[in-house]
Design goal:
74% of the residues lie in helices and 7% in strands. By secondary structure, the chain is mainly α.
Length: 148
């Protein structure tokens, strides 16, 4: 199947984060409406729902394009995605006032306070998770759609 490989790459890329975000939104709905937790979950989930699936799709299209000229490991390619997501997320969140930086750490929506030590520890873990997601799951969807 050689028709529309970039469209198939986009669809393979958005599949996993879209499914994952459905689970996250369901959990947010349960926590917000059943347990009545007064945290603005609706505003917190807007950026991930709008940007992450689309960026996964575009990143997978880029992988397909790069792979035509020379071999690039899909896991390594996927592990570079947080280096794109992080500056975009920080720029948008801080410019809209959702995220502020204080001496002790980052404050998200004036509710969630995250010390810088935790952020520095989480980033390498995020890289490993993205590597594994791309190496096994996105690669599976690419093979399923015949573009791997």
């Amino acid at each position: 199947m050689s028709t529309h490989p970039y469209l198939r790459a986009y669809m393979a890329g958005i599949t996993l984060p879209t499914l994952f975000l459905l689970v996250i939104v369901t959990c947010f709905f349960v926590v917000r409406h059943i347990y009545a937790v007064p945290i603005p979950f609706e505003r917190m989930i807007v950026f991930p729902m709008a940007i992450i699936p689309n960026l996964f799709g575009v990143w997978n299209m880029l992988y397909l394009r790069l792979n035509q000229h020379r071999y690039v490991s899909i896991g390594i390619h996927g592990a570079f995605l947080p280096f794109v997501l992080l500056p975009v997320a920080l720029t948008i969140a801080s410019s809209l006032g959702f995220l502020t930086f204080k001496a002790e750490g980052a404050v998200y929506f004036e509710v969630l306070r995250i010390p810088y030590k935790v952020l520095a520890t989480l980033f390498p873990m995020v890289l490993v998770v993205y590597y594994l997601i791309w190496k096994y799951l996105v690669k599976f969807f690419n093979e399923l759609l015949g573009i791997a």
